[in-house]
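User: Sequence in, structure out. Go.
Assistant: Echoing your sequence, followed by the C-alpha cells.
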Amino acid sequence: MLSKEDTTDQSNLSLKRVVGLGSAIFLVAGNIIGTGVFKKIVPMAASGLSEKYILVAWLFAGIVTMFGAFSISGLAKLTTEAGGSVEYLRLCYGNFVSFLFGWGNFTIFGSGAIAAVGFVFAQSFNSLLPVPNPFDSLKNISIGFIHPFADSGIKILAISVIALLTWLNYRGIKKGTRLNNLITTSKVLGILLLIVLGIFFSSSSNIIDESSTPVKTLEGISFISIFFAVMLNAFWAYDGFASLPALSAELKNPKRNIPIAIITGVSVVLLLYVLINYAFMNSMPLHQLASMGANKVAAIVVAESILGRAGNVIISVLILLSTFGFLNVVILIYSRYYYRMAQENFFFKKASLVHPVYRTPSYALLYSMIWSCILVVSGSFDVLTDMVVFGGFVFYILLALGLIKKKRKGIIKEKIPGYPVAPVLFILFVSIVLVSTFIHDPVRTLSGIALILTGVPFYYFFKKRNLKNTATIKVKSDAVSTKEEIMK
C-alpha cells in the first residue's frame, strides 16, 4: 500500500493527537454496543426469573462494568503512550505479562474477534440478500478440522469487509472515527426506536404482571445462582469498555478525556440497555421470549410484531450496522496494541512504523488484517475465542490490581472515582466469573490457558533478538570509540 513517494523514513514518525472527546465517547459506546443487546433477552427469559429481576440483572451488570470503567480510567493517568492495556500491563508487571496479553490478542482475542464479527456481518447480510457460494463444489475438502471452502460466499464477503475497513483506517484515524460516529449514532437511534415502539406502541403490558412469570427454581439451583447466570449474560453485552486507551497517543488530552469518555460511554449504554430490555418485556410475555430459541433475535421478533415486515427489515439493517460499526472499531483499536508492542521490540519491528502521510500504524493494521482473514478462511475463530474467555478475565483482574498497586506506591497521585471500592468490587465479581467459568467447563478453560501460553516461546524469541541487537549496537559503539581514540 505504500507508494514510492511515501517511502520516507518512518522510524521517527509518531501518531497524531487528532481525536477529540466527542469521538472518544462514540468509540466507547460503539465498541460496547454489538449484537448482544438485541438477543440476550432470550436466554434470560428462559432462566425463570421475573421481568423485574431481569432488569435488576442488567442494572447490576452495568454497575460492575462501571467499576471496571473507573479502574481503567485510573490507569489512564499512568501514561499517554499508545497501547492501552498492553502498556498498562507492561508498566505494572513488566514485558512478559504485557506480551502474553498482546500476543494473545494478535493470535486469538483480537484477530479472532475481527474474524468472528466479519463473519457475523456476512451472515446478517446473507439473510437480507443471499450471497452465492462460488466454491460450493469444494466445500467438503478439509485440512484436518478446517474446511476452507465451506460457506465460501460468506467468507469472501467477510474478508472483503475486513479489508475495506482496514483500508479506511489505514488512510487516517479521523476517517475511522467519523465512520464510527455515524454508525454509533444510527445504532443509538435504532435502539431508541425499539424502546419507543416497545413501551408506547405495544399492545402488551407484561412488565407489571409479576404473577404470570414467577421466579422458579431449576433443577435445585438456587435463586442466587440463576440470578448470577443472568447477570453474566448481561455482562457479556457490556464488554468492550476497556479498549479506548489503546488510542491514547491519538487522543487529545488523554489523561483528562479517557476517564470522561469511558464513564460517559458506559453510562449511556447502561441506560439504553435497561430501557430496551424493559421494552422487550413490555411487548411480549417472558414465556414467548423464552420459546424463541437461541437462533432467534428478540429485537427482530418484537419489531415485526409491531411494524410487520418493515420492522423485520429495519432491525435486520440495524444489526448489520452494529456489526459493521463494531468491526470498524476493533480493527482500529487492536492494531494499536501491536504498534506499541513493536515499539518496545516485542513484536515484528515493522509494526512500529507510522505512515508518513496518514500517520497511522500501517503495518500493524496490515498484519492484523492478514491474520484475521486467515482465521476467517479456517473457520476456527469461534472455537478459539470461546476457549480464551477465561484468560481475558484474568487480565481484567490484573489491570484492576495494577491500579491498586500503582496507587499505593504513589505513582498515580490523582483522585480516582470510586477508588478503592470500585477496583476491589470489580476484582471480586470477575473472580466469581472465573470460578464459575472453570467449574462449568474446565477442559475448555485449561485449553484456553494453554493457547495463551503458546506465546511464551515467542516472548523469548523477541527477548533474545533484543539482547542480540543491544550487543550489536554496543560492539559498534565500542568500535567507534576505539577509532576516535586512535585518531586522537
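User: And one key feature?
Assistant: The mean pLDDT is 86.
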